[in-house]
Every structure is written in structure tokens, then in C-alpha cells.
Amino acid sequence: MAKLTTALPLADLAVDGDAGAPLYRRLYENLRRAILEGRLAPGARLPSTRELAAELSVSRNTVLNAFEQLLAEGYVEGQTGSGTFVSKALPDELLNARAQDGRASRRTAAKGRLLSRRGLLLANTPVSALNPHVRGLRPFRVGVPALDVFPYETWSKILQRHWRRPRREMFATGDPAGYLPLREAIASYLGAARAVRCTPEQVIVVTGTQQAVDILARVLLDPGDSVWVEDYGYIAARSSLVAAGARLVPVPVDEEGINVREGERLCARARLAYVAPSHQYPLGVTLSLARRLELLEWASRAGAWVVEDDYDSEFRYAGRPLAAMQGLDAEGRVIYLGTFSKVLFPSLRMGYMVVPLDMAESLRNARALVGWCSPVVDQAVVADFINEGHFARHIRRMRTLYAERQAALVEAARESLGGLLEINPADAGLHLVGWLPEGTDDRAASDAAAAQGLQTQPLSAFGVRDGDRRAGLVLGYAAFDEREIREGVKRLRTALSQYRLR
């Protein structure tokens, strides 16, 4: 095993004690302290994440998260094929260094870091758990709808209509809040389908959920503010919060959704809570009514905001979609997020947020600063698609189709994956979690699936807290017909069987 340094015993890196902090944070602090105190010299090679995890008796995910934080802050640097090394120019030294003369500054710029500390954090913050080595759309990619049955002809006719009789405003800079007819259509649809209480003035069109979270973090949070996030939870939203300088408070999720009482125990005065109550990602649970009321009561006491990501709410296969939590909010503390990218097609890059009326102007201005507005012609097409009834018709068709595809995945798994992966049906959503046998490394299992041309996501990648939790794979089914699903399950059996034999 590569040694840290002969002067640094592993006991110095022990992560027991201080039970209030996550394990990865404690390991990060211990490594950072060792670097700053010189016990880890500049240029020293660190052990691999797997080796260090074994030595310290922690999960590899713990070490990965600690290394990623050190890398983002400039304390270590990675060298492809060689490993991870203590940086020769440490961020604390750079911050405290006196200004050099112009010639020295030019030398430093020529060979030094080109990114700011914030830039390093942004560049090294993951936004997805997809394996980058698998290209294209392969089973079981998550977050992609049924592109094979999208009503392209209808969409094309609406688009052609706008191009045949173009209006001048379609080619000018649009309103940062969005095209008014689209905002009117969204407000009308949400009131009828999701029990969201809003006017068009409260709707702001964005490129998607991640941009909405980024804007909200800029406006509502100061660096160091605490934010509740679901654990497991949506990586891209979590990454936007980290990039804004927020301190994440990982709150566990159980069969009733986010555990509000545990959140209060961990950090009662958090500034914001990011939740997906209708269909939690990735676990798929629904936040119970009792928990919804608890969350709103906590937000009232703490003076906090609740960001409601209404992920996959349209696709519920047992009964009607549940009403949004925003409709229960009497104090204007809930900000509602929705997206068309998962319902229509991902490259549309269009979503929306519903904000309290007294905040609408501030958030409209913030939207302008991050890109002014979404393409107006695309917004006009979506508005007509909704107003002419195509949107509601498409959702009804997709509910039936996705229920069939989910059933095909569950059946194929029961036939072929016994003892390798346990998959149970769910009442909603476009993906399922497959549970691996105890002791399985889901990252390694996902890598084995990637070698078979499959796009699975390891469940552990969505976690923040450290601990011994059951491993799983997140499997999307919406974009694949029954033949593709069955063929994908066969390849998944091959991958998991080979992995278990190693």
C-alpha cells in the first residue's frame, strides 16, 4: 500500500468521535489539518480511495467525498494514471501570500492555477451519477421519456405555424420571466392538475430544475447558510447548492419521505429545505400528509424556505397525481419547481418555478442575470401545445405506456435476476431502484453493467451521509420498449453474475 508518510500514523486520520459531523467531513478535516501542519508534505502521494477506506474501516464513498472536497478546494491534485498528491501550492498559502512583483506574478500565472477557489469547486462538483464511458441512449438510462412515441408531427405543425406567420416579438429579446401566454397556460394547468395556487405573474420560465435551484440559491442564501437536502437525493440540485457556498445538512428519507424531526435535530435553523414530496428521487417514496404539515410548520418557526421539486408528479399509475405541497402553504414559504424536459423531451431545456408574488420581481431580475430568457419561439410552441389539449393527451398516453414498461422490467427481473437484483413495482415515476445483495459495492456493479453497454446509476452516488446502507442500482425504463428492456435485463444478469464471481 502507498504510504501517506512515515510521520503520519493512520490513527491521526481516525473518524470516530464528533458524531454530529458526517464521516467524510471528519476525514476531510483530518487530512486538511495534516496538510496544513506539514505532516503531509507538498507532493506527497495519497493512498487510493479503496486502500484508505480499507485501512480506516469506512466506506469508499466516505473517502471519495473527502478527496473530492480537498480537490475542489485545491489541497490535493489528481494526476491521470498516477494517483492523488498533496498540492505544491496550497490555497491557504495563496490567500495569505504577499503580492509579488509583476515579473513574478507573470511566472506564477504561467504555471499556476487558472481557476479561483470557487471555480475549482464548480469544476469538480459532480452533477450526475451516469457512467461517462457509456455513450448514447442505452438501457437503463434515467430521466429520459419515451422519445420513440413523442407526437413529433403535432409538434412540427405548431412550430411550422409560428415560422410561416412569424410575429416580430418572437425574434426580439423576451421577458426574463417568460413568454406571457406560456406563463398563463402553466398557471392554468397547475391549478387544475396539481392544486397549485398561482397567477401568471408568479410563474418564471427557466431552463430546468437545476437553473431554478441555482437562481434561488443566489437570491435566498448567503455562503455558509445551512440547507436541508434529502439523503439520498438529486445530485444536480445538491451540486448547485454546494456551488453557491451552502452548507448541506443531509436529512434521512424513510417510507414517509424526508424525516422532518431528524432535520430539526440536525439543524433547526436551516435557511432552506430542498425536497421532492410527490416522487422522491431516487427512492421514489411520497411525502406523507403528516410530514408535509410538519415541514411547513418547521419552515414557519424557522423563517425558512421550502423548495418543492415536483419531480415526475404527472406519472402516477395508482389513482390521481397527489396535490402539490404548495397548495397547503398559507405563508408563501414554498417555491414550486416543475419541468417539461422529463414530460416532453430533454433537449427542450425548459422548466418553471412558481414563486411568492412579493418575490416575483426580484427573481425575475435574477433570471435575467443568468441568461435573460429561454428561446421565445420554443416557449410559444409549448404554450400552444398545452392550450390546444395536446399536453394533457400526451400525459394520459404516457401514463399507460410507462405502466406497461415498468411491468415489463419487473417481470423480466423476476425471471432473470433472482439472487442478483431485487426489483419491486412502484406507484409512480420513470425509474425503479434495484436492490443488490448485502455486501455488494454498487459502484463496482454499475461499472460491470457499463461494460455490457448499460447505463445504470449506483444508489450510493446519491447519498451524502456515510454509513452502512444497502446498495442498489437506479434503473430507468421509460425510454425503452419491451424488447429493449428484456435484452437489457439479460445483459444486466451477465454483468452482475460476472461481478459476483470475482
Distance between the termini: 21 Å
Major sheet strand order: 4-11-10-9-8-5-6-7
Question: What shape does the CA trace take?
Answer: globular
Average pLDDT, to the nearest integer? Answer: 86
Q: Which range best describes the helical content: under 10%, 10-25%, 25-40%, 40-55%, 55-70% or over 70%?
A: 40-55%
User: What's the total count of β strands?
Assistant: 15
Quickly give the structural class.
Answer: alpha/beta
Number of helices: 17
- Portion in strands: 5-15%
**Main sheet: strands, sense, barrel:** 8 strands, mixed
Unreliable residue runs: 1-7, 92-112
Gyration radius from CA atoms, angstroms:
24 Å
Task: Explain what the structure shows.
This protein has 502 residues and is α/β, with parallel strands linked by helices. Helices cover 41% and strands 13% of the residues. The chain has 17 helices and 15 strands. The protein has helices at residues 23-36, 49-56, 60-73, 91-96, 102-111, 117-123, 152-164, 180-193, 209-220, 235-243, 260-267, 289-302, 360-369, 376-387, 390-416, 442-451, 482-501; strands spanning 45-46, 76-79, 83-86, 203-206, 226-231, 247-254, 257-258, 272-275, 305-309, 334-339, 351-354, 422-423, 431-435, 457-458, 472-476. It has an 8-stranded mixed β-sheet with strand order 4-11-10-9-8-5-6-7, sandwiched between helices. α15 (390-416) packs parallel to α17. The chain is globular, with a radius of gyration of 24 Å.
